């Protein structure tokens, strides 16, 4: 076995030629990869600039002016007060989805990495990845036509018997087109990414840690608790944040399932209370003109800022936790 | 084994892929450009010798999305008869259609509302004085549909409908409903209203109807946006119909062609109740008076919602064109297309495809002279 990047023997022509061609090749590749890296920055900057530039007329316009030219805009509010409920709805949907998805995803990941027989684990892994390949419009249709009717009796029951829980109050929707259903569908949608990343992280737990725990007489649950979970914590958090990013920006499924409304209500079973930014833009863009479009883009800017903040927080948490995890 | 060969082959592939993808980024989006056209009619020579020669060229219009399904049928029908002709219709919305027609980027347009004075002035600047053609080419009845087990049809006065959609009448066995339906076995189910979540001409039309027919109950000014908060809603006609089907005791308004097996409301007009039908909806357009003081070829109507025997909730969508175009080919193409659009055949095609109400002969006769006058000049 030869490795050509070993120091060349001087004066041997073929080698030198190869080196010079290698150098040209190296340079070209470096340029291309630099270019690719810079492209990302340029695209991001272009998107941010576009959002700011297009949102600016709506940001600078007064509430009155917006109220006359944007159909949904209520009189005597500011743009901030208008976008507020949308931001709230977006975060509520994403947080609900995360609360439902993360425990299940960790469970699946642990089952695949530490409990399931090898074959079953592989099959399950494929199936989970398959979930990620389903387009969101299909999830939307499924949620709208199948899941909502199935969940409705359950939501009504919750509403009837547990209405003292803040989330289950209000007048429950009789068609299931409420935030709770959206939360369930979004949870299913972000399940694959969280599961896949968590599984990889759990699989990387140092064998020595696990064996040490076993040697001390730990049961399998204790091994998971003392060796696997602490080691994987930061990985799971970043997985959850990846999922959160997807849930925040999800459009089609929300658009098709939710009966939108603009409020700060916590009643996730009620219809016409919440709306997410992405679905709002998709729903209203076709008939918007002028300042209406600027307002839509201003809400898009808000979503951009939220997503940026979420990702930066995630990075920060991961980098902070790294020191405490079992990795070192 | 020689590792370097493999790594080099691998990196060559990587470089190739990167180069390709970068090249793809940089390439001109030419196909998109030519597809959108600029409303220009790039015509090929037509056989001027023969009278019945099929038309050729490209024609771009745009506007109301409500006309989209019908427009697809018209385009298909027209292009079948004239294989060399291409008609494009961009469903950008009524406002966009009127603006595009006014600045000349669309040679014809569709709009759910008639041109206002300002827009008419802009259009006349394009078409010449008195040169604007405007007629109700697409009439789409809006049905009030509900989902109640075992009930196919209910009679309702406009005030009752307005009360239900406002959320003031909350139960199906409410006296207001029962009074008009003595024979119906009304359940005590709660009423769930489903409205359109997107901005829509159907919503605006329905609100307009309620505002005119039940002014005491429905006081909100009509707009494309639903005025009541906290109700169920869904996107598009198929969305609201789907939501109504999913629930019990649900009610909505939707394009009549979409309501399928749902129960429908016979709407109170004067002393009687009129069940939805395409004929009854066409009748309301035929019997409503024409707007006064317009130029010859502007056939707009003042929709009246209380003519006995007619179905009053209809979306009237206008078609816009000029009487004169810069070149002969465009003029011929527009004339040919609009003639087909208002013809019995064209109207039937739209009815089959979009459930619209075909125009009556009287209206057809009134608007044909305008279309026939289209020429180059």
Short description:
The complex is a heterodimer of chains A (328) and B (377). By secondary structure, chain A is mostly helical.
Give an overview of the whole structure.
The complex is a heterodimer of chains A (328) and B (377). Chain A is mainly alpha-helical and 328 residues long. Chain A has a single domain (61-324), classed as MetI-like (MetI-like fold). Chain A is built from 11 helices and no strands. Chain A has helices spanning 13-60, 63-69, 79-115, 118-133, 136-161, 179-203, 207-215, 220-249, 252-257, 277-284, 291-322. Chain A is globular, with a radius of gyration of 26 Å. The relative contact order of chain A is 0.14. The model of chain A is unreliable at 324-328 (pLDDT under 50). Chain B has 377 residues and is an alpha/beta fold. Chain B has 2 domains: 16-32 and 44-140 and 316-376, Periplasmic binding protein-like II (D-Maltodextrin-Binding Protein, domain 2, 3-Layer(aba) Sandwich); 141-282, Periplasmic binding protein-like II (D-Maltodextrin-Binding Protein, domain 2, 3-Layer(aba) Sandwich), CATH 3.40.190. In chain B, the strands form 2 sheets. In chain B, strands 1, 2, 3, 4, 5, 6, 7, 8, 9, 10 and 11 form an 11-stranded mixed beta sheet that branches. A two-stranded parallel sheet of chain B has the order 12-13. The longest helix of chain B is centred in the first third of the chain and has 24 residues, at 3-26. Chain B is elongated, with a radius of gyration of 25 Å. Chain A binds chain B through residues 1-5, 25, 28-29, 32-33, 35-36, 39, 71-72, 144-145, 148-149, 152, 173-177, 255-256, 259-263, 270-273, 283-284, 286-289, and chain B through 1-4, 8, 11, 14-15, 18-19, 22, 25, 65, 92-93, 95-96, 99, 190, 192, 194, 197-200, 223-225, 229-235, 239, 242-243, 246-250.
Secondary structure blueprint with pairings:
The complex is a heterodimer of chains A (328) and B (377).
Chain A: H1 13-60, H2 63-69, H3 79-115, H4 118-133, H5 136-161, H6 179-203, H7 207-215, H8 220-249, H9 252-257, H10 277-284, H11 291-322
Chain B: H1 3-26, H2 30-36, E1 57-63, H3 68-81, E2 85-90, H4 94-102, E3 108-111, H5 117-127, E4 132-147, E5 153-156, H6 158-166, H7 175-180, E6 192-196, H8 201-213, E7 232-234, H9 236-246, E8 250-255, E9 263-269, E10 272-274, H10 278-287, E11 314-322, E12 324-325, H11 328-342, H12 344-354, H13 361-372, E13 375-376
Parallel strand pairs in B: 1-2, 1-3, 5-9, 6-7, 6-8, 12-13
Antiparallel strand pairs in B: 3-11, 4-8, 4-9, 4-11, 9-10
